TrEMBL record:
Membrane-crossing segments per the record: none
Source taxonomy: Bacteria, Bacillati, Actinomycetota, Actinomycetes, Pseudonocardiales
UniProt entry tagged with the keyword Repressor: no
Function (record text): Catalyzes the formation of N(7)-methylguanine at position 46 (m7G46) in tRNA.
UniProt catalytic activity: guanosine(46) in tRNA + S-adenosyl-L-methionine = N(7)-methylguanosine(46) in tRNA + S-adenosyl-L-homocysteine
Record has tRNA processing as a keyword: yes
Similarity comment text for this entry: Belongs to the class I-like SAM-binding methyltransferase superfamily. TrmB family.
Enzyme Commission number: 2.1.1.33
Binding annotation for substrate: K151, D183, T222, K223, F224, E225
Keywords: Methyltransferase, S-adenosyl-L-methionine, Transferase, tRNA processing
InterPro entries assigned to the protein according to its UniProt record, in alphabetical order: tRNA_(Gua-N-7)_MeTrfase_Trmb, tRNA_methyltr_TrmB_bact
Protein name per its UniProtKB record: tRNA (guanine-N(7)-)-methyltransferase
Amino acid sequence: MTRPPTGAPTEARPSARITSFVHHRARLTEGQQRAWDRSWPVLGRDVADLVAGTAPYDPAAWFGREAPLVLEIGSGMGESTAALAAAAPERDHLAVEVFEPGLAQLLMRVEELGLTNLALLRGDAVELLRTRVPEASLAAVRIFFPDPWPKRKHRKRRLVQPEVAALVASRLEPGGTLHLATDWDDYATQMRTVCDGEHLLENTAASRPGGWTPRPVWRPVTKFEHRAHQEGRDVHDLVYRRRCAERTGDHAS
């Protein structure tokens, strides 16, 4: 989704695990602060608390029902997140983001639309998936416009790497989907290569040219995506499905 400016990246240790974010510091507007004060205590949770076990990871309790669960890694300013949650009231949605103004802006959208099927989590989605999200528990995972880390020396920091693809795939229920989108050509190719190499995933558009999924009409066009088009960057979508049964023998076959 819409990426806030990254500013100066934090240096990662060579042995550091991949995370889903870079820390950003920014002030909230008055409207965002009011929405935060009103709604964060009800709708928001810190991933660090869930990982530490000081707060429970319990979507059924949060939403008061059992429903298919969609997790979005990096909800940005929440433009698509809120619209997609509103369009699918039969599904519950988890938006994981570290950028507080983005979370606050999403809270404003939740209040405006009266959404009851969206919860917000502040922190590292990868650590949440690794430590708290049960296997085969998600109907879908969305990764829209993750930080492209365009400099070659920084590309090891990109989110979509083999270990993350394997982790996400393991948390999808059989038949669940992983939907990715990016406006950086080389990152799109990397995403496709990484996900093609994960034996639990199959490309739903494998028979189409390049393996790209046609842009879904239901995915809202955000201001960020509109700007990408204005600047001449193509947007690539990829949709993978978790296989209903693991293949035997050569996983890469």
